[in-house]
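We treat protein structure as text, and this decision shapes the records that our systems exchange. Such a record has a labelled line for the sequence and another for the backbone structure tokens. The record that follows is passed on verbatim for readers who wish to inspect the format:
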Amino acid sequence: MIMNTTKNNSNIVNNMVVFAGGYDGEMIAIINACREAGVEVVDNHLGWGASASAYAEEIAKAVSEGKVPVLVELTLDIEVPSISIIVDHHNEYAGKPASIIQILDLLGVEPSREQQLIAANDNGYIPAMLALGATAEEVAKVRYADRAAQGITPEQEIEAERAIAAAEVVNGVTIVRMAHSKTATVCDRLFDPEKEQRLLILSGDGESNFFGNGELCKLLQGDKTGKTPEGWDIYSNFGGWIGGNLPISGFWGGYGDQKAVLDYVVNFFAK
């Protein structure tokens, strides 16, 4: 059976190899924390949606050397060794602590103020940081690091501003259509702590992302019904991925038919 994270197990810490998932501010902090603790990290500089198959050979090598693979935010599209430790807080792992907190628990390290804010940002975005008493400067620092880790370019920032200027609102849902899917460029600009978040971003690469009501995020994904021959999960609705401060609020993303996604989201709030 695949293991969940185990707090402060020195035997595991001394023998584990961490395999890094898709880059964002939290993943960079995880890599840094592991290396500072002397833990081996295998990092292929992957993007969001990264899968375990990207490390298939390295995982097998680690096990052959008697080490414990720790897979951080990697979709399990291959069968992984039973001794593997899975660190994640998305999809079926939603509701678990942020991945950086799980990793620090494994290392037996108490999170610093900065790490607490990074965890809050990854689980509950700016509202979660504010709930910890974050200052405007702390919020700006964490969000800047997150955007930088995602590799957001000045051109993508400009495109986000254009798209926001052309946004429309239907049933309280702000609908933004833009060429790329670096959603932080829109979310950060539109965030208002005084308003309920209802944001739908439809990107030119076919990706759709909703931010807001946690119930709707789960409904958009649907129930898991099986797997494709390639190992990807199949869902009863649009599939994709979910996370955030579920079940209260969160995010959903996927590649379903964008008109159908738009209708589903708008109609949800028409009740």
Q: What stands out?
A: The longest strand covers residues 173-178. Residues 10-124 form a domain with the Rossmann fold fold (CATH 3.40.50). The mean pLDDT is 93. Residues 153 and 178 are 14 Å apart (CA to CA).
